[in-house]
Backbone:
């Protein structure tokens, strides 16, 4: 997963800088037009005169790169309802080989290309939502945590839109929000399990006499990871982040690592690499 910070610093939403009191969930959108490049939206929306909308991130349909356009804890203008104050909003860009024929109806001009692009944004969204669930202690399978714009309307926290389910169906893919939530949960579990696999080479390992375990170093692969009081997203966030860098782990459990510093808290090893 690649996250590139490209904050919309001129957008009135960013300038206002209103913070979310609590992040209760994540809302998945698609842009609703045949534009695969995130840069097209970033260039248009990053203006003092663009006061209609502002989301936390766009996912490029060409390369799958995630462009973060607001700090995650900012109040966004992405769903036209109370979900703006509770949910992080993420937009997936759409293929340039489709054509809207009215409302949410789509004509596909190149099915193979369209499906390739949609699968790319779907996969990046799964990775991003997995990361955000870990970062903010969210259960991806709990009702109302991960929702589409369409589902947000059903929950009365968003305006009446059909995205992104209309896009998946329109290009002939069997994705649903239920499959998306399951894929996010499986991605978290899979990465946690993989991080438990022993490494044959640990040149930087040293023996921890107090616990009988071996210390090892990890490098964070994504933006700052939150430090929790225990090994899992069910444990309380300590209010601190690792920052980007290399850290020493003194204990490993269920895919999580206990930090030697700072504060002897725990981080997810799913988003780290042993060094």
Residues:
């Amino acid at each position: 997963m690649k996250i590139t910070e490209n904050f919309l610093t001129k957008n009135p939403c960013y300038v206002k800088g209103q913070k979310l009191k609590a992040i209760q969930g994540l809302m998945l959108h698609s842009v609703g037009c045949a534009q695969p490049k995130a840069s097209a939206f970033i260039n248009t929306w990053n203006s003092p005169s663009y006061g209609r909308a502002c989301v936390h991130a766009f996912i490029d349909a060409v390369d799958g790169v995630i462009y973060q356009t607001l700090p995650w804890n900012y109040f966004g203008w992405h769903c036209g309802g109370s979900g703006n104050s509770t949910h992080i909003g993420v937009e997936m860009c759409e293929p340039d080989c489709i054509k809207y024929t009215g409302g949410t109806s789509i004509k596909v001009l190149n099915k193979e290309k369209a499906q390739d692009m949609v699968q790319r944004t779907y996969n990046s969204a799964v990775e991003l939502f997995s990361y955000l669930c870990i970062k903010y202690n969210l259960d991806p399978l709990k009702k109302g945590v991960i929702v589409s714009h369409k589902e947000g309307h059903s929950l009365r926290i968003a305006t009446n839109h059909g995205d992104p389910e209309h896009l998946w169906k329109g290009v002939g893919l069997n994705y649903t929000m239920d499959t998306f939530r399951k894929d996010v949960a499986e991605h978290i579990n899979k990465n946690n399990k993989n991080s438990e696999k022993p490494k044959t080479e640990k040149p930087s390992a040293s023996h921890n006499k107090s616990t009988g375990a071996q210390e090892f170093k990890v490098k964070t692969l994504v933006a700052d990871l939150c430090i929790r009081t225990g090994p899992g997203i069910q444990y309380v966030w300590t209010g601190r982040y690792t920052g980007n860098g290399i850290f020493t782990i003194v204990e490993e459990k269920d895919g999580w690592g206990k930090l030697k510093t700072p504060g002897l808290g725990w981080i997810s090893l799913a988003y780290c690499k042993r060094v």
Notes: Confidence is low (pLDDT under 50) at residues 195-212. The longest strand covers residues 246-253. Helices lie at 12-16, 38-45, 111-135, 149-154, 165-170, 177-195.
